[in-house]
Amino acid sequence: MKKHLLLGVLVLFASMLNAQINNAVLSDKIQLQAADSGKFLFELKTNSYFRNTEYFNPIELGRTMLGYQFQPMLAYQLNKHVKIQTGVYLRRDFGASEVFTELQPVFSIKAKKGVFSLIFGTLEGALSHGFCEPLFDVNRYIERRNEEGIQFKIQNQQTFIDLFIDWNRYITRASNDQEKFVVGLHAKRNVLGKDSRFKIIPDVQVVGKHHGGQIGTNADPVTMRWNTALGIRFEQGRKRHKGFFDFSYLTYSEPDKTGLWSSSSGNAIFTNLGVQQGAWTLSSSIFFGNNFLAPLGTPIYASQSIEDPTIYQAERKLCYLRLLYEKPLMKSQVKTSFRLEPVYDLNKDVLDYSYSLYLVYQFKYKLSK
């Protein structure tokens, strides 16, 4: 009875309010400021995370991630258009046998002119791309935060275009592995004036994952798996006081079927509706998938289990209710993001939930000219 009551509440909210989660607090951006021209800078990014998914769904079982990310960097801004930065990225998962789960060098060159920017090296990646959860895993902010490759962006108050290549695996002629990379495009634009309180935003998202390469000794078949999302978003209000609704039609395709996955094509519908008042956001989401797979997506949306590939549910019907709280902590540079997200599987009559807490701190100090 309680499950059916919650389902009714979820459906009610999905017909009244909702939208994709705003991940601005968890986004990375290489900042260029005219006042920093000709100066050396010390920059620090830290994130403490606690994400717990209480999932008893065979498609994705629950787990807990608790730890921190630490990224000190030295930067030099040549002028108001070009910035170079380098440092090290450290990730520590509490309770892990190794001292650091990840230890990686980071290096970026960003050139910006007007609304155009080009980044080479460590990208403005993970949740900064702004993809919807079924296409891009929300856990990438913890597990795959740093991406390396080339990125081209166009961004202002009206337009957002992000085109990138994230290179995952380099091979030589003697490598017994495949070349691996991800290519993505996210483009959206408000078709009404920037001063209007009402916004209409068409949205296009494309993500492809490639395994292959002409050299090396690996004999696995070449694969290219694609996901797309065509959507539209409506907003009413300004900044942190608004209501919103978005609708997306998602697709999955593997043009050269290799037999490694259970389906060569699929589709889904993903709708979101919500309201934001200051630091609080309340929203709901409905997802209907048919043979939908996404190699980079949040696993719970897929038809094929991430736990056991033999478990396959052609139809996926999920209903989310989301409560978010995001605000600077005690007027400091530390930003907090808390999320509570119950999810109901309509096919299996299973009610699961997740909750997350992030504390994000960014610091910049000007060393000298």
Summary?
This protein is mainly β and 369 residues long. The protein is built from two helices and 16 strands.
Main features:
5% helix, 16-stranded antiparallel barrel, 16 strands, mainly beta
Task: Describe the protein's topology.
Layout lengths: L1 H13 L24 E19 L2 E18 L4 E12 L8 E12 L2 E7 L17 H4 L4 E8 L3 E11 L9 E11 L8 E15 L10 E16 L2 E13 L11 E13 L2 E11 L24 E14 L5 E12 L4 E19 L1
What would your notes on this structure say?
The chain is mainly beta and 369 residues long. The chain has one domain. Helices cover 5% and strands 57% of the residues. A 16-stranded antiparallel barrel has the order 1-2-3-4-5-6-7-8-9-10-11-12-13-14-15-16. The longest helix is centred in the N-terminal third of the chain and has 13 residues. The N terminus is likely disordered.
- Strand tally is 16
Q: Percent range for helical residues?
A: under 10%
Which series of helices and strands comes N to C?
Answer: HEEEEEHEEEEEEEEEEE
Number of helical segments with 4 or more residues: 2
The strands making up the biggest β-sheet line up spatially as 1-2-3-4-5-6-7-8-9-10-11-12-13-14-15-16
Cα gyration radius (Å):
21 Å
Largest sheet: 16 strands, antiparallel, barrel
Q: Give the overall pLDDT as a whole number.
A: 90
Number of domains: 1
Shape type? globular
Strand proportion: over 45%
